[in-house]
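Translate structure to sequence.
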């Protein structure tokens, strides 16, 4: 554990490099000889079942969990003499209760690193992220590139209507959009 723990959040739309930034920081921690344990949502099987993977192919071993309670249960079984110093979570928005667990870990001296979407393609903030943001010591809003105009994109557009609010997918289902080209974000555009 750190004497002065950090709570770092990388957030933004799909394809904005959030996971790559998380993995880069975990690589840095490795060279600082810090013990890191990473978690990912069990439902996210896009690239690997046992690794956090970026769209660009970077990877880091991870434990698959369904919720925050699973994470605490897993951590309770780790050797007390060698506890992790850093807890990393990819796609936190997919895991109910993960915010409470991460806040508890942070209060107990663990450094936390999270990468996650902050809102759905419909423009609705994810509950877990709303609970995480007040505790973050650093938040990096990552921008992608709008697939329509090439400007900075801060929102995720879902190509298909219907379905669930949280659906695991890649470029076949989602794309980044700027304010102007996201019809659910830009209400002025929607009214024309």
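Result:
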């Amino acid at each position: 554990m750190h004497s002065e723990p950090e709570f770092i959040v990388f957030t933004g739309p799909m394809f904005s490099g959030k996971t790559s930034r998380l993995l880069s920081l975990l690589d840095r921690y490795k060279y600082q000889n810090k013990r890191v344990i990473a978690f990912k949502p069990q439902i996210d099987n896009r690239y690997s079942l046992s690794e956090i993977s970026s769209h660009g192919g970077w990877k880091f071993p991870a434990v698959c969990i369904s919720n925050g309670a699973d994470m605490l249960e897993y951590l309770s079984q780790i050797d007390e003499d060698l506890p992790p110093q850093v807890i990393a979570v990819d796609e936190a928005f997919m895991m109910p209760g993960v915010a409470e667990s991460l806040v508890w870990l942070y209060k107990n001296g663990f450094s936390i690193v999270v990468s996650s979407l902050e809102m759905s393609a419909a423009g609705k903030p994810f509950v877990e992220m709303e609970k995480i943001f007040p505790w973050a010591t650093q938040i990096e809003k990552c921008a992608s590139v709008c697939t329509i105009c090439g400007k900075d994109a801060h929102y995720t557009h879902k190509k298909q209507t219907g379905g669930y609010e949280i659906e695991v997918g890649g470029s076949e289902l989602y794309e980044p959009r700027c304010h102007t080209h996201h019809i659910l974000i830009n209400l002025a555009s929607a009214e024309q």
